[in-house]
Specification:
Elements (H helix, E strand, L loop, with lengths): L5 E4 L9 H16 L3 E4 L13 H12 L5 E2 L11 H5 L3 H11 L3 E4 L3 H13 L23 H9 L5 E4 L6 E6 L3 E6 L7 E3 L7 H11 L4 E5 L6 H10 L8 E5 L2 E2 L9 H7 L8 E2 L6 E2 L2 H4 L3 H9 L14 H7 L10 E2 L2 H14 L2 H16 L10 H11 L7 H6 L12 H7 L5 H13 L5 H14 L4 H13 L7 H8 L1 H17 L1
Helix pairs in contact: 1-12, 11-13, 14-15, 18-19, 18-22, 19-21, 20-22
This protein binds one RNA strand of 76 nucleotides through β7, α7, β14, α13 and α20.
RNA sequence: GGCCCGUUCGUCUAGGGGUCUAGGACAUCUCCCUUUCACGGAGGAAACACGGGUUCGAUUCCCGUACGGGCUACCA
């Protein structure tokens, strides 16, 4: 009988969810869905000092925005509730497991004060040890249930002395485990310190908590970031000492997301520095009021964001680049997850958005554009520029020239507003007084012409040009500037047709007026 | 420093002993399309970190070196 696949994303609510965290959640989700399993969200709030209000809600909102649906967890509950470790602590489960380890001789009470720990480290450093550890060799000099008599320990415990429970890691023992992505990993236990399992405030550390919960929640695959690889051997040991090796999930350590430039992993600072979001959603730090921008507010489609993220460290083994969530689910596999870290490229992220923008139906883009136009330009409801036909036409003119919906109005402002100024460089370069009669008769011609379609205008402009012994090429650029104020932009004829006869005539008159005034 | 993990175009990556004259995408360059700018089309430049093995043959396997990353807390 094969167990039902169950994965979990278990973030710590210490701030907004980093895009690397979203990717970890995504891979957990994809793997679970692919195998018809469950995906859980567990909140690992065991560090009360780092707890940030609002972070948990942010995480849930971010995952929801991404389309990463949760089967069980803080937001939806489930058979293994509660899903918040601070609440699970009340169940006494962590202490129970920690004490079980003490009883079977694989963990011990340690009463050392912070000062004593500090002294120990300094002693070791002075002795030439670069990385001082609380381990098999140093613990013999410390205040713990291994060095104290049973009576002393009991009396300290009864007196309510502060203590932690540490894992008793043996020395010189090879610990091997199989990582789904990396294969066999072997570490000598001498490299592992006696990790704190239960803190003096009664809270478990991550090391103990994730194991207890993974077992209790019947997690089959623990998929997490590479930063956990060095402590994985300690986790293996805990499972072993708990007699739970058969229940141990398979571990998969994902490669990290690296900075677009320079060295190191992607951090919040890179976003500020290079001008791209590092977080899925906007986040305002409750303590400092500082705002970190999110992909959502930048105008990214969640589908584009997720697609981009999926391809950072994973590939389908084919040349396909655009995936729906369904396709990601059906094609995801650890065999195609990279081992090396992936440098994040903000340019490619934009490209993904552009691809998704083009897939949007014109009518929907127009509808959303309407909201933006109303907001910014505040037209009357009956204004022609708010009509669906006008807006859809705007979209058609601009759709393939932008990467974000917000750019439509930004780049196409002149489709809504009569220009207040004209591109001087083009005027200087192209304008000749001799052209004036042409523009005047073109204005008249347009005014009296019934056919205001792009092709109709094309014919009209060309014939008027011919009548003035001009070639179309000579005046087109000027016409563009007169109509839009700018030297470049959307298709000129399409733009004139969209604007309508009245507006075109108005703009042409304004332009000629402007020339005369100079 | 120690330990662990990694290393194919600038970037994300395909490829897992002969098919590699190393494929795709982003970015970049050139040309075409075009009234402009884009889009689109065509093309170009661009990579197996290095040194040893193993092998008839290594981008692919092994070992070193270099480089990069992570970890080295009563944080996760």
């Amino acid at each position: 009988m094969t167990k039902k696949i169950r994965t979990r994303f278990a973030p710590s609510p210490t701030g907004p969810l980093h895009m690397g965290g979203v990717r970890t959640a995504l891979f957990n989700f994809l793997f679970a869905r692919k195998h018809g399993g469950d995906f859980l969200l567990r909140i690992e709030d065991t560090d009360q000092n780092r707890y940030v209000p609002g972070a948990e809600a942010y995480i849930i909102e971010a995952l929801t925005w991404c389309g990463i649906t949760i089967d069980e967890g803080v937001s939806v509950n489930g058979p293994f509730a509660p899903y918040r470790q601070s609440e699970r602590k009340e169940l006494g489960i962590y202490k129970e497991y920690a004490e079980k380890l003490v009883k079977n001789g694989h963990a011990y009470y340690a009463f050392d004060t912070p000062v004593e720990l500090e002294n120990m480290r300094n002693r070791l450093i002075n002795a030439g040890n670069v990385a001082p550890q609380y381990n098999a060799s140093s613990r013999v000099n410390m205040v713990n249930s291994l060095t104290l008599s049973a009576e002393e320990v009991t009396s300290k415990l009864n007196a309510g002395d502060s203590y932690v429970i540490r894992l008793k890691v043996p020395s010189g023992e090879d610990i091997a485990f199989t990582d789904i992505i990396r294969g066999e990993v072997i570490v000598n236990s001498s490299q592992v310190d006696d990790k704190v399992l239960l803190k003096s405030d009664g809270m478990p550390t991550y090391h103990l908590a994730h194991i207890v919960d993974d077992v209790l929640m019947e997690i089959t695959h623990a998929i997490r970031g590479e930063e956990w690889l060095p402590s994985a051997p300690a986790h293996i040991l805990i499972y072993r000492y708990l007699g739970l090796e058969k229940e141990m999930p398979q571990y998969a350590h994902l490669p990290l997301l690296l900075k677009p430039d320079g060295n190191g992993k992607l951090s919040k600072r890179d976003g500020d520095r290079l001008g791209f979001p590092v977080f899925p959603l906007n986040w305002t730090d409750p303590a400092t009021g500082e705002l970190s921008s999110g992909y959502r507010e930048r105008g990214y489609y969640p589908e584009a964001f997720v697609n981009m993220l999926a391809l950072l460290g994973w590939n389908p083994g084919t040349e396909q680049e655009l995936f729906t969530m369904e396709e990601l689910i059906s094609q995801f596999s650890f065999e195609h997850v990279h081992k090396g870290g992936a440098r994040f490229d903000p340019e490619k992220a934009k490209w993904f958005n552009e691809q998704y923008l083009r897939k949007q139906p014109d009518e929907q883009l127009a509808l959303r554009l309407k909201g933006a136009v109303q907001n910014e330009l505040g037209y009357e409801k009956s204004d022609r520029r708010l009509s669906e036909s006008f807006l859809v036409h705007v979209i058609q003119l601009l759709k393939e020239r932008v990467q974000f919906e917000t750019e439509v109005l930004e780049k196409g402002r002149y489709l809504f507003e009569t220009p207040a100024s004209y591109d001087q460089a083009t005027l200087d370069k192209k304008w000749k007084p001799a052209y004036q009669p042409f523009f005047e008769s073109l204005t008249t011609a347009i005014k009296s012409n019934a056919d205001h379609t792009a092709t109709g205008l094309d014919v009209l402009i060309k014939s008027t040009a011919t009548a003035h012994q001009l070639k179309a090429g000579e005046i087109m650029q000027l016409l563009r500037v007169f109509i839009s104020g700018q030297s470049m932009g959307v298709d000129l004829l399409g733009m004139m047709s969209l604007l309508g006869k009245e507006e075109v005539v108005l703009r042409l008159n304004n332009a000629v007026q402007m020339i005369n005034d100079k």
